[in-house]
Amino acid sequence: MRYDAIVIGAGHAGVEAALALARLGNQTLIVTIDVKSVSHMACNPNIGGTGKGHLVRELDALGGQMGLNADASLLQIKMLNKNKGAAVQSLRGQTDKEVYHEVMLSTLRAQERLDILEGECEDLLVEDGKVCGVVVSGKTYHSTVVVLCTGVYLSSRTITGEEIHDAGPYGFANSKNLSAALAAKGLPLRRFKTGTPARVYANSIDYSVMEREEGDYDIPCFSFLTQTKLLEQVPCYLTYTNAETHRIIRENIDRAPLYNGTIHGVGPRYCPSIEDKIMRFADKERHQIFIEPEVKDGELMYVQGMSSSLPKDVQEEMYRSVKGLEKVRFARYAYAIEYDCIDPLALTPALEVKAISGLFSAGQFNGSSGYEEAAAQGLMAGINAARKIKGQPPVVLRRDQAYIGVLIDDLVTKGTNEPYRMMTARAEYRLSLRQDNADARLTPIGREIGLVSDERWAAYLARNEKKQAIRDAFKHAVPLAKVREIFEKKGEPATVGLTIEEMLKRASISAEDVLCLLEEPLRDVDLAKEIAVEIKYGGYLYKEKRHADDQRKMEEKMLPIDIDYLSMENLRLEARQKLNKVRPLTLGQASRISGVSPADITVLITYLVKAGK
Fold first, then answer.
1. Are 182 and 89 members of one domain?
2. What is the tens place of the pLDDT at every residue in 243-287?
3. Residue 267: its pLDDT value, please?
4. Which residues pair with 361 in a beta bridge?
5. For residue 129, what is the enclosing H or E element?
6. In this structure, are 484 and 532 located in the same domain?
7. Beta strands 359-361 and 28-32, pairing class
8. Cα(77)–Cα(35) distance, rounded to whole angstroms?
9. Strands of 211-213's sheet, edge to edge?
10. What sign has the CA pseudo-torsion 395, 401, 407, 412?
11. Which helix (H) or strand (E) holds 478?
12. Number of separate domains in the chain
């Protein structure tokens, strides 16, 4: 059979890639080993988090699906880092994993020009350096482009103590043959590891001795199209490990696959197993453990913070040492999973495999971790695969445009030696890349690409119009009596009338404080907060823009594709090797390669000038 595009894998990356391709007019096939694994949340059933919430809002602003489906399945939502600056505030939502899966599967089935096929992809078809199809369960399917979104399924194995299974996450079948086929075609593979905690029965937990964690009822949801706020929410709970928990783990550390040599894959630095936490942070007296629902009114709870690969008997002992879990019963034990993935330095900024034209790659197969990182890459891989079919140039988001740009640039330029996780600290322009303004930054780009629907575009224009009206109102003068009334509540003096904008420049005055000064139709607290941030941090935002403009000049300087870095004797050996491996497209990208110094860039510029390039 013949398709325009084939997507391998239907996790969070695969579904976004397939939907983008189909919505951009391409006859698309998405292949999954088991349709029950579509957008399955094998790890924590939540969307968002620090830095990750930014990715979801950006993906939504571009016309992606994750934000809408998260909102349709939300059990609880909260804003992380509320007491910190606007740049690092991030949405995090606890979702019903079954509803999320069902909504995404229904979305795929309802999408025009998109077919779903159950089967195992066993090989790629490549002719003259170009991909031309795949082999699925012995049958050949032809296409112009292929997107690999295999997640953690490639030659994967799950590990619980001495118990090892040749399987994918959550007991799903794995991909047994594709790794060898990819390696035979020259793709550089590596071995990574991740893990997940146990699932326990809700009625075996003593919540009365735990701290109740409520959500936030006054904040927006993930999608800019969701107008309502989540007024009915399910609580989560907080407890802690203790000295007894730590003793049990230390006394059994020789049985931990992570420490006895059973596990060879590299695990995530920022989401370590409980045994790794105890050994690495020996001075810490306790670690947070969150008890969170998997589904609404369900019988199972997720024990976040206690992922492990220890044997089952040790898991039972250590879990039951935690306050509130003394009588806990297990529905599914914690496990680690090892899997094959690609070295992302083998990819272009468009997420196309350098060695094989038309072959794109996204998600955990690219060395990242997390649903949100996967979905963001899937969307961009789908967009660029669609543009490849039409002979259009790729869409590459800059680091000053989006967290998605930071994510992809980090992977394909710097590479990663461990599962990559997005954090706000990775973005040098994070004050400009706030989650509240993702639509302003990216919806016009999504519209130009063709993914932003008429409904979303109309909502964007209406939001912009209202935002501008609030900005204009903020410039109006406020009588002294009103100013004094607001300032006195903050313990500040007021001697003259001010505009609302001037009032907001005071650190103590918030958008909520001045909302009463606006006409009723303009009293939109979320938009007012966004504008208030622009006012309060105007000077810093200007500096970020200046820096970004300077960096953009470097990005505009394209490097010759045939440049021979290894022959540049004036360059340090490490710089030559790194430049030759990454093959940067621009001078800006070259400057961000790990191991390439500013002095190396100066030598490179001198060489190019002398060579007339």
1. yes
2. 999 999 999 999 988 888 887 777 777 678 899 899 888 889 999
3. 73
4. 148
5. none
6. yes
7. unpaired
8. 28
9. 211-213, 236-240, 288-293, 300-304, 199-201, 330-332
10. positive
11. strand 477-478
12. 4
Q: Is 161 helix (H, G, I), strand (E, B) or coil?
A: coil
Residues 561 and 421 in one domain: no
Q: Which two tokens mark 219?
A: 């904040």
Cα–Cα distance between 594 and 172 in angstroms, integer?
Answer: 37
Domain-embedded: residue 485: yes
> Roughly how many angstroms between the first and final C-alpha of the chain, as a whole number?
45
- In this prediction, residue 523 carries a pLDDT of 94
Residue 520 burial by CB count (10 A; 0-12/13-18/19+): exposed, middle or buried? exposed
Are both 371 and 265 inside the same structural domain?
no
Cα 212 to the center of its chain, rounded Å: 27
pLDDT confidence of residue 595? 86
The 3-state DSSP class for residue 115 equals strand
On whether both 268 and 298 belong to a single domain, the answer is yes
- Does residue 237 share a domain with residue 152? no
Cβ atoms of 353 and 360 closer than 8 Å:
yes
Is the four-CA dihedral 32, 38, 44, 46 of positive or negative sign? Answer: positive
CB atoms < 10 A from the CB of 124, how many? 23
What lies within 8 Å, CB to CB, of 305 at 6+ separation is 197, 274, 287, 288, 289, 290
Q: How far apart are alpha carbons 293 and 295 in whole angstroms? A: 6
Q: For residue 234, which of 95, 422, 60, 66 has the smallest C-alpha distance?
A: 95
Angle at 408 between CA 406 and CA 411, to 5 degrees: 105
217 φ, ψ to 5°? -95, -5
pTM: predicted TM-score of the whole model, two decimal places: 0.94
Name the nearest CA neighbour of 375 among 122, 100, 76, 75.
100
* CA-wise closest residue to 479 among 497, 493, 504: 497
User: Torsion angle, CA of 439/445/450/456, rounded to 10 degrees?
Assistant: 20
Domain extent, residue 512, equals 462-541
Residue 470 structure tokens: 């609030």
In a shared domain, residues 257 and 361: no
Spans of the chain below 70 pLDDT:
270, 613
